[in-house]
Amino acid sequence: MNGKVHIMDHPLVAHKLTILRDKNTSVKDFRELVSEIGMLITYEATRDLPLTTKEVETPICKTVAPTLKGKKFAVVPILRAGLGLVDGVLRMVPSARVGHIGMYRDEETLEPHVYFCKMPKDISERDIMIVDPMLATGGSAEAAIAEMKKRGCRNIKLMVLLAAPEGIQHIQETHPDVDIYCGAVDERLNEHGYIVPGLGDAGDRIFGTK
Ligand code: PRP
Ligand code: URA
Fold first, then answer.
1. Is there a catalytic annotation at residue 91?
2. pLDDT at residue 141 in the model
3. Is 137 an active-site residue?
4. Which ligand 1 atom sits nearest the alpha carbon of residue 207?
5. Catalytic annotation on 204?
6. Could you say which ligand is closest to the alpha carbon of residue 77?
7. In contact, 168 and 134? CB cutoff 8 Å
8. Which ligand lies nearest the alpha carbon of 137?
9. From ligand 1's centre to the CA of 15, what distance in Å?
10. Measuring CA to CA, which residue among 73, 80, 128, 84 is closest to residue 101?
11. pLDDT tens for residues 93-138?
12. pTM over the 0.90 mark
């Protein structure tokens, strides 16, 4: 069975994505919006976190109320554009650890290569959220997921802002156990592997490198 694709169906996400798409949006606004949408998607992607209960005393009386069971969680940005989403995830799950995976794509073949991987020691015991703004061909996400599985991780989710149908299909074929959480699914890829209509090069727009 394929992993599920959870597409955000929320006016705030739709509105913020439209501003991201606008080529005239400033680097500062772009960066802030990536972080905000990351926070909103995290809200959805953590819906299945297990709860337990604890006793608290309100100003009125004692009660037993829900609290997170304290499952171990790690957010793993794919460098570099994935860095833009880390802050949003951490604002929702402040105790999460952060692992970094560096990936570059060969400009001609678009094949991804891992050049850096630094993970918390107990990463195999943690639930993993891989984050990257763009799921285009799916090659980068596929390689990142494979790298985490090599390190013993089993419970992996993928969070992206925009996905192409081609990328979703690729992840479903190569890692059917991974659920995808995305802000929106766009029409297609162009001949350069860019998402159409998309938002352009996410890394360049977050870091102002163009
Ligand atoms: C972008 C993006 C993804 C990848 C998606 O990164 O952030 O990592 O492309 O493409 P794919 O699904 O076809 O693999 P890029 O390679 O441009 O590097 P950057 O993060 O340094 O900008
Ligand atoms: N990477 C990006 O940054 N944008 C795309 O549209 C595709 C891959």
1. no
2. 97
3. no
4. 22
5. yes
6. 1
7. no
8. 1
9. 23
10. 80
11. 999 999 999 988 787 887 888 999 999 999 999 999 999 999 999 9
12. yes
